[in-house]
Amino acid sequence: MVRLKTRYILFEIIYPERKTYPIEDNFGTVADSALSIHQPTDSKVTGRQIIYLIRLSLHKNFGDYGSSTAVGLSMRYFSPRTGTGILRVTRNNWKYIVAAITFINSINGEHCVFHTINVSGSIKKCEDRSMQYSNDLIRTLRKARNAADDDDGASILGRVFAEDMNKDGQGVSMNDNRVQKQ
Amino acid sequence: MICDLNVVYPQDDFDVFPGARELNKLKGCLAVLEQLGYTHIALNFEPKWTSGTINKHMPGDIQKVNPINVDKDFPEFKGRLKIYSRITLKIDDPSQCQNITKFQQVFDIVAVEPQTERALQLAITNLEVDIITFNYRERLPCYLKHKTIGAATEKGIHFEIKYSDILESGTHARAQAISNIKQLIRASRSRGLLCTSGITFEERSRARAYCDVSVLLEFMGLDRNRASQAFKDWSLDVLLSGRLRIKSYKQVIAVSGDGGLIDNSLEQNDWSLKRKDAPTNIKIDARGYKKRRLVEKD
């Protein structure tokens, strides 16, 4: 009995050049730069669209031979809100897929960077890593929020958090729940 | 400890300083690299002149040679990133390289870009440099032989690979860059290589995480372990050798601060506040400490 061997790739999309909400070009603290770089993906972007981008990049960079490595490629999880996703590829081809992801530089004309966080043989480990990653991110933000609270919300970050709380009552922990729900 | 030893500083002239807009964009670059997991970053000053012509343009005052002032311009990144300064000098006329020793006093890392075969030979045999780099987008100045490259590696000189050259697809320059990098990897037998980004302040979205780039390097014939060494061990080696050059004197080393040897904090302290006409941007080396003590005694 031959088993089909796979690899799961956990990736994240970050937007270094987006200049909208919440903070415009402010890199004063770790939290500020984390907020201005880790931004949500456009909600219209679907997993299928990203698969298409990867296939396009494979063809552009590795030709027909590279395209052939995308046979078992599928998106197992994608959340535009956090910009993270998990891809499933056949085991022999994962390097081609990671390289193709690295070469992608825009989605819908907007500059972005694909950042591979983890490559694993089981989807469980990818999920664990994803949770750990977003927890780390949230911890840095929480720390900054506590510091901002001490400032009586005088800093930019404090005001942003206050707005966020009014909007959905959950603050930044929203991202955290999303990942855990899956 | 992941290093990126080449983020281009937006200035190519000794007199024309970058504006606030450029510096802010550069900070954006640093923030992106920080988010991607880098911890040690070197800002690279590339004068537009080659070694033959730079003498005419160099300021006579040595404290004005280094335009990068990390403490003054990047106070936000204190405690987050370790930022170093680097100079890359293009060498076309091998007979005029005396000013390299001058650069060693003010920059953390000294790199050269040889433009002829003779310049490469000279850089390896005679010059005290940390990094040798090439313009990978064009043809290399000569065929790289294992003997010359091996001699340099033996001496502790490292060769640089810039990954931003291979990200832009569908151009001739990229094909040339890939072939050049493969040639370098073959000639060096995968030893003594550095991998850096080489991004400028406008190319913020060209930055990539080190694990992504090491997969690309694997396609070019550098194995996984060596690729991670190019970002970690070998890059730290370069920083360390630069450090030792200014912090050691006759086999005695000055160790300081929490970061031990690879730490800029002590040199950047303004030791000379009491004295008039104090240099601000010069690294105080071991001899400098000695001199300072003598001055204070007087």
Q: How many alpha or pi helices of chain A?
A: 6
Query: What is the number of E strands of chain B?
Result: 9
CATH architecture of chain A: 2-Layer Sandwich
Helix content class of chain B: 25-40%
State the name of the first-level CATH class of chain A: Alpha Beta
Strand tally of chain A: 6
Task: Give Rg of chain A in angstroms.
Answer: 18 Å
Which runs of chain A of at least 5 residues are low in confidence (pLDDT < 50)? 168-182
Class inferred from helices and paired strands of chain B = alpha/beta
Radius of gyration of chain B: 19 Å
Q: What pattern of helices and strands is seen along the backbone of chain A?
A: EHHEEHEEEHHH
- What is the chains' assembly state? heterodimer
Mean pLDDT of chain A: 79
Number of domains of chain B: 2
CATH third-tier fold name of chain A: Alpha-Beta Plaits
Kindly report the spatial arrangement of strands forming the biggest sheet of chain A: 2-3-1-6
Give the biggest sheet of chain B.
Answer: 7 strands, parallel
The string of secondary-structure elements of chain B, in order, is EHEHHEHEHEHEHEHHHEEHH
Q: Indicate the CATH class of the largest domain in chain B.
A: Alpha Beta
